Amino acid sequence: MMNVDKKKIAGYLLFIIVFFAAGIYLSDFSFESREKIIARTQILMGTVVEVRTRNENEDRSNSAINAAFKEIKRIDDLLSTYNSKSTIWKINNSEKKKYILSDELFNFLLRCDSIWILTEGAFDPALGSLTKAWGFYSDTPSVPAQKIIDKALLKSGWKSVRLIDKGIIEKESLLLDFGAIAKGYAADKAIEILKSHGIKDAFVNLGGQIKVTGNSWTVGIKHPRVFNLLLAKLKIKNYSVSTSGDYEKFFFEQGERYCHIIDPKTGYPASKCKSVTVINKDGMLADALSTACFVLGPLDAMSLINSIPGTEGLVVNSSGNWFMSNGFKKFLIK
Ligand code: ADP
Ligand code: MG
Q: Which atom in ligand 1 lies closest to the alpha carbon of residue 249?
């Protein structure tokens, strides 16, 4: 058992790790000195959430940023698998097979369903039994015995979830896990809220899940291996950028790296990439696609990204080679 002080220290360490683990961050050096930036951070959805406004009225900014944080908290209370207040936590921890959902949650699940189809199952938000088996929900992840993986595979898979008319969902005894998409959805909703408060120029970052509105913003993509080094700098306007990497949540066992992104077909952590960045106007899609493309590997990821209008991507494969979609270069700052 951990005593309280150890827990506290672990909490601070987690904070430091999470803070530095964010896949993408704003490159501060891009600011013009005459720009008036109001930036605030909070720990929400298990990560550091940053909201910035640029050249806006200070009072308006502060109340808009408060409302954006409140909205992100509301989404966490809907979708989190850790927070016992959340609707999804309650569904995961109940024996029932049939649930009646709010319109918002049902529509969210319909979108998950269409992305599951689009990615041919590489994005699978019903693999909670697998992430649990690998211990990614705990402080001590490790390689499970093959029979545990096989059992978790049987208790996983979006194919066993049925979305029925009028907000009804039916599922087998599996665990839903929206870790690959919830932050993208929250980024979309936070920008909507900022706009509804009259903010025109803003940036939100939920642990590497970015969405911006207004004029161009410069964002840096973290190098997957070299701490504090940027892989690339991007200039984006009214887009969302999502990076999934094997350097955010991982462990080593017998010299092998195991990361928190799971291949739903094998039940093992995906290993074809080090980092995948996806750009799309829709944060939810960018978030889910960066995870799915990480599973697919560079070649299938590139054909998928190039087939979806308004989507661009950068993949770094397991050997460190870059793959860029047809139009990715237009976002790159030399
Ligand atoms: P992060 O949450 O670190 O930004 P991702 O967006 O790539 O990274 O999401 C990874 C999380 O998504 C995992 O922690 C797990 O909860 C969930 N997950 C892992 N593999 C998959 C997958 N193939 N499809 C859908 N969700 C996944
Ligand atoms: Mg994702």
A: 3
Q: What is the reported pLDDT for 32?
A: 53
Distances in Å between the alpha carbon of 26 and those of 141, 188, 204, 220, 222? 30, 17, 10, 6, 10
pLDDT tens for residues 61-111?
A: 999 999 999 999 999 999 999 999 999 999 999 988 899 999 999 999 999
Pocket test for ligand 1, best of 263, 291, 295, 315 (most atoms within 8 A of CB): 291
List pLDDT tens digits, range 69-78.
Answer: 999 999 999 9
- Residue 134 has phi, psi (to 5 degrees) of -80, -5
E-assigned strand segments in 198-261 = 202-206, 209-213, 217-222, 230-236, 240-245, 250-253, 256-259
Give the number of residues written for the chain. Answer: 334
What is the enclosing helix (H) or strand (E) of 170?
strand 168-171
**What residues does ligand 1 touch, defined as CB less than 6 Å away?**
122-125, 127, 131, 136, 177, 179-180, 207-208, 244, 248-249, 260-262, 264, 287, 290-291, 295
Q: Which two tokens stand for residue 175?
A: 């665990």
What pLDDT does 1 receive? 31
Nearest one of 185, 262, 259 to 23, comparing CA atoms = 259
Pick left, alpha or beta for residue 258 (phi over 0 → left; psi -120 to 50 → alpha; otherwise beta).
Answer: beta
Q: Which of 293, 236, 294, 288 lies closest to 270, judged by CA?
A: 294
Looking from the CA of residue 263, the nearest atom of ligand 1 is 23
Which residues have their alpha-adjacent CB atom under 5 A from ion ligand 2?
180, 287, 290-291
Locus of tokens 């987690």: 14
Element (DSSP H or E) covering residue 53: strand 47-54
Positive/negative CA dihedral, 89, 92, 94, 100: positive
Confidence of residue 169 (pLDDT cuts 50, 70, 90): confident
CA of 109 from ligand 1 middle (Å) equals 16
**Domains in the chain: ranges and CATH:** 29-79+180-331 (3.10.520.10), 93-170 (1.10.3980.10)
The token pair at 149 is 């993986």
